[in-house]
Amino acid sequence: MSPSAEIMDFEFYNPVRIAFGRDQVKKIDKFVPKDAKVLITYGGGSAKRSGTFERVVEALGDREWGEFGGIPANPVFEYLMDAVENIKTEGYTFLIAVGGGSVIDGTKFIAAASLFEGDPIDIFASGVGKGLPVEKAMPFGTVLTIPATSSEMNPITVVSFEELQAKVSIKNENLFPAFSILEPELTYTLPKRQLANGLSDSFVHVMENYLTYPVGAKLQDRWSEGILHTFIEIGQEVLADEEIDYNTRANFMWTVTNGFNGFTASGVPGDWSSHALGYEITALNGTDHARTLSVILPATMKVRKKEKWDKLLQYAERVWGADSGDEEARIDFGIRKTEEFFRSLEMPTRFSEIGIEETDIDYMVEQLEVHKRDRLSERADQTLDISRKIYEMAL
Ligand code: NZQ
Ligand code: ZN
């Protein structure tokens, strides 16, 4: 560790009220103002099929409410704008998202756009809009149905633009949910693929803030390692087809939420290049977000071994128990174990498994440039050439 490395200055703020456990949806009555006119948002239908939507309606009691469904995975700007129009006509004052990252992120955008003066595209940067600040947003709560993104406890939204083939995030503290309901039983209807996606996405969120360079942040490192250990411990149980165990799902849900709610990121450098490279893949062919990450993270570890040496070694030793061989052998062991972990969840680790070919790489690198992702990683030293090498490593 370089002697000057120290914990970075930071502000920590996270106002999200969490209601966790069994039968929590009814607390919506306590959390939502009595005179609110509520718009309930949801995705392709799982919220209705599982009965969760009806439970939300019941909890709202006499409040006026309406609905906006069909929010697609990787929520699309143009589609979300229909909800913004609807809100302006109908005068809704509060939003409740029932779903996963896509519905919650879509709702965050709707909350911001419906109070934005001007063209809402301009709240996005990254070559899409003007990057104007979100000064205010409509209050909203969430009922989480898939643990994966931590969107339920962070102020981030990721929105896709179909024509531009762009996927862009915004972080703004007006985008924290007022509350999030976390009922582990709501995960019982999730297909195996989505459970594996959730475990993998959150694993990579932790790695983005951990696999950088050491600053001597002992608690943040132990938090991160604790989360990674938990995923490794419960991964197979979460996917198990036999009778579902409540505590396994409860651990899964709360651990995922803690993967990207600000704690592990406090005072430490952040990378986020795996996410940036992954967004270009989803924008190109619609691959599930998590499945881009399980391919890109191991490739990044290999290409960026030298830059991330100290933390890779710490990761290999503390997370995977590497205790023999020289430093490089331990690091390589850690990288191998990471790939094996993803594969044990039936996640892809190569481009061939997610429909990306060598001929796509030029386009993805061009798109990284268009979206101003040409100086990535914790030291802003991941140039387009390095990103290209990572894409090539993933072939
Ligand atoms: O649309 P429905 O019918 O609800 O089906 C969904 C969807 O098909 C289904 N599902 C959700 N809960 C279910 C269920 N099926 C059965 N039972 C349930 N209980 O699962 C599918 C995936 O849902 P989605 O919300 O897309 O998944 P996820 O939570 O992984 O969200 C992914 C989106 O979040 C963004 C991703 O880029 C992607 O757009 N992210 C958001 C982040 C944030 N806000 O902080 C950070 C992440 O890094 C990520 O980028
Ligand atoms: Zn993610």
From TrEMBL:
One of its GO terms (molecular function) is methylglyoxal reductase (NADPH) (acetol producing) activity. PROSITE patterns: ADH_IRON_2. Keywords: Oxidoreductase. InterPro entries: ADH_Fe/GldA, ADH_Fe_C, ADH_Fe_CS, BDH-like. It comes from the Bacteria. The keyword Oxidoreductase applies. Residues 200-366 form the Fe-containing alcohol dehydrogenase-like C-terminal domain. GO terms for cellular component: cytosol. Residues 15-184 form the Alcohol dehydrogenase iron-type/glycerol dehydrogenase GldA domain. Pfam families: ADH_Fe_C, Fe-ADH. CDD domains: BDH. The keyword Nucleus does not apply. PANTHER family: ALCOHOL DEHYDROGENASE YQHD. This is Alcohol dehydrogenase iron-type. It comes from Trichococcus pasteurii.
